[in-house]
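USER: Study each token:
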Amino acid sequence: MQLRLTLLSIFICLQASAQTAITTFAGRNIHSFYNGAPATAAQFNAQHKIRFANGLLYIADASNNSVRILNPATNNIAIFAGKGSSNFSGDGMPATAAEMNYPQSVCIDDTGNIYIADCWGHRIRKTTPAGIITTVAGNGIAGYSGDGGPATAAQFNKPQSVATDDSGNIYIADFLNNVIRKVDLAGNISTIAGIGVAGNTGDGGPATSALLNKPMDLFFDTANNIYFADQGNHSIRVIRPNGIIQRIAGTGMGGYSGDGGPATAAKLQSPYAVMWHPSGLLVCCGLWEPQSKKHFTFYRHYKYCSRKRHGRQ
């Protein structure tokens, strides 16, 4: 069986096969805004996370303040949410008429709801299968407050990623607050990892007592473990169902080393995404090379977790 992987370049979407051949299937090397077919004629601007569900690819096109949708069967790309302007509006209306501010990621639950981390809007938005958008968390003001109360009254500080569990609870990587937060089925919010201060402590103990440093991306596996990229700590960490946190990859020091050895002895450089692979975790890391002032992306694979549940990332 040929394995294909969807990778996100800074302006274009790439597809890599198991033979490592890479082709462009969406976007051009021009940062702008264009829809329609073919997808290779489309233009993006600093797109971030991509998610595949129900045969469609959802792309968080951050600087275009929108989420785009690509249908590989028709090679057509269109707007799913956001009309391109940077603002906040549209709750209760079709998502295509809404305004967002630098959406960073999307996730899809089993009922077809699409959740969007509206990063610079400091909110989590939800689009129903009928295409109507609402805010499910965040009041739009940067800060850290609201635990124990309605999620819509809470403050975030640039939420980077969103995921859901089997029960429909929502989990959010609250980037500049250095915490992971949860919105329960009643709509109330709590912090499940971190204390709101940047640091690198707590492995082996309760996640609520640990220090994180800019959590960037998260997903669930079939055993209800929550994996996330702890970007500022150059590590991948996991929160177990019993609330205990562990570092599973990275030493806490930035760099690139350790291939062929234990993941916890390897150096990562500012990991910004964790993605599922049939045999474990695929870790996406960003590397800045100061001499050439270029940004490189490299991918490192660790055989660690069980199979990811469908539609949870």
Observations:
- Residues 198-289 form a domain with the Thrombin, subunit H fold (CATH 2.40.10.500).
